[in-house]
Model the fold of this input.
Amino acid sequence: MTHRIWNFQAGPAMLPTEVMEEAAKDFCDYKGAGMSLMEMSHRDKTFQGILDEASLHLRRLLEIPENYGVVFFPGGASLQFSCVPLNWLGEEEFADFSLTGVWATKALEEALEFNPLCQSVFLGKNSKFTEIPSLTDNDLHPKAKYLHITSNNTIYGTRYSKFPDVSVPLVADMTSELLSRPVPWNKFQVVFAGAQKNIGPSGLTVVIYNKDLLPKKSRKIPKLMDYRLMEENGSLYNTPPTFSIYIALLVFRWLERKGGIPWIEKENERKAALLYDFLQECPFFDLPVPKEHRSIMNVVFTTKNGLDEAKLLSELEKNGFSGLKGYRTIGGFRASIYNAMPFEGVQALVDFLRDFTRTRA
Ligand SMILES: *Cc1c(COP(=O)(O)O)cnc(C)c1O
Done:
């Protein structure tokens, strides 16, 4: 048996053990090829098959419409903070940003480098990023081309349980939740997600966008950031992160085998409810985020009534629960319970916290 602890890290995050074991089995000798997939040409038909199948599975899992492109980008989610304005805005145009946390704030900062009129339409800082706004057209600039949102805020543990009802298309950073619930595609012109939370290894980003809405190229775009070029080349303009795409495919297959999005959404809700309900009732914990805005992927909590945070953290580590320290600037605790975290992992954490607060607090 492989030694695995309960890993609640926000990202890179745990992957399904089944996926890791399968990849390990084929690591040195990929299905009799006598070499690792990592050592194989990205132009080889073996890799082409993996790429095609990965994109097919993703389309099926998320019910992505035909007219949406699926591109595997290098560079992480943060690269999309510059790709999106460069591809979707002309030099004189601008977009609105809902600043519900660090990632949207960074996206706006980056967009301002290229399109100085971009603006924020919600400042979550005023409520310590515990709130999600219900934005309407009245909140937006009438000439804004799109509204950028972070659908799930990894650091603060909030999410849009309903997506904004506005007439401009949405651009959504879904890094910490893609594949955890269905996506109502008609609202979105671009959805992107860095792989390391819910999909696979870091350095790979999945970008899904409405090809009909992509404006004609009107400015200089570096080739590797050009949606059209990347799509026309089937994510193979240059050497893509081949091994990461392979692991992503194994994750997609795993999810499909288990029952797809309908199954995982229920499972995620069950996990989150178990943890939130316990934290809500236990007199030693506080939940900073109001119920209606709580993320089901990242559960943020703090201690109260004299429960020693540092002691609890070190006891958790000693007992095989890793990655629970809150984000460096906000402290407290954060349990990231992405798709790969099984219900038993959350149950084990709740049992440990219950026992700890009863006997050692
Ligand atoms: C982790 C994260 C990012 C950053 O991803 P990189 O791949 O490191 O650029 C961006 N947005 C969200 C919502 C995240 O959770």
User: Anything to note?
Assistant: Residues 8 and 284 are 20 Å apart (CA to CA). The chain has a mean pLDDT of 97.
